[in-house]
Specification:
46% helix, 2 domains, TIM Barrel, 8-stranded parallel β-barrel, Bacteriocin As-48, Chain A, 8 strands, alpha/beta
Amino acid sequence: MPSHPPRLILAPMEGLADDILRDVLTRAGGYDWCVTEFIRVSATLLPHSAFTRTSPELRNASRTRAGTPVRIQFLGSDPGLLAANAAHAAKLRPAGIDLNFGCPTPLINRNRGGAALLDEPELLRRIASAVRAAVPQEIPVTAKMRLGIADAGKALDCALALEDGGVDELVVHARTKTDGYRPPARWQVLAAIRAVVGIPVIANGEVWTVADFHAIREASGCDDVMLGRGAVADPLLARRIKAGEAADPSRDWNTVAAMILDFWSQVQNKVLPTQSPGRLKQWLGLMRRSYPQAEQLFLDVRELRTAQEVSGVLAYQLPACGA
């Protein structure tokens, strides 16, 4: 099985894992690196402000406050334009450049972005080759792909094309674009991909628990795992995996409650008061899968519309949990 201690990577989750959630989750511990939400490249050379807006960590040596390296992700279909933007971003010394071939969102796919390119392995190769040539060798270039559009028929071709294009590591989400996020993930296909490429393959998809982590590694043969929605549902999952500990909601809730308060404080400083409640509800909506206490908190704030109302509930509920 594993040839080295497993690495855990926090996934790039559009509209969810922004710099605030990356900060809160990586300070809980367990992550080796993380990836930003995608930066869409469609028509122009973007200014540095576009990169620092998505990844404020670039102002901190491309690391979160916990010291976790942050790679910035690009999405697009034009090899030359992606290469030019990657070269421009490289001047800010990111911890890495990642290429998105996994987003299943219809709007993105209609504009030839994300997983929509998985029928075109040669285009994937040209994109990877152009970006790798444009970025200094000391900056890793990685890619994230799904198994395909409607089936996994071209999964091996895509993986080989990206390897040939020069990516250093490949993350594979074990679903197709059509699958979306519906279970099950097809972990066994990851083993076939891993068998044909010489670069590290990082397994991703449907890892919600410590048991899932062990299962995906067993099924795929991959050493390393990227955690997505499971990391949001259980904010201590990475730390628990590294420590080999089982989940205990009653024991862990005090720690999670403190993370919620930290998140809420940061969100209020970033977005408008009318927007901040939605951000908290989004997180709690996933977290209630792992913590009964989050289920009750979600119900208590679900109908609230203002930051002031939410703050009142948190001040009342979380100290009662020992936060």
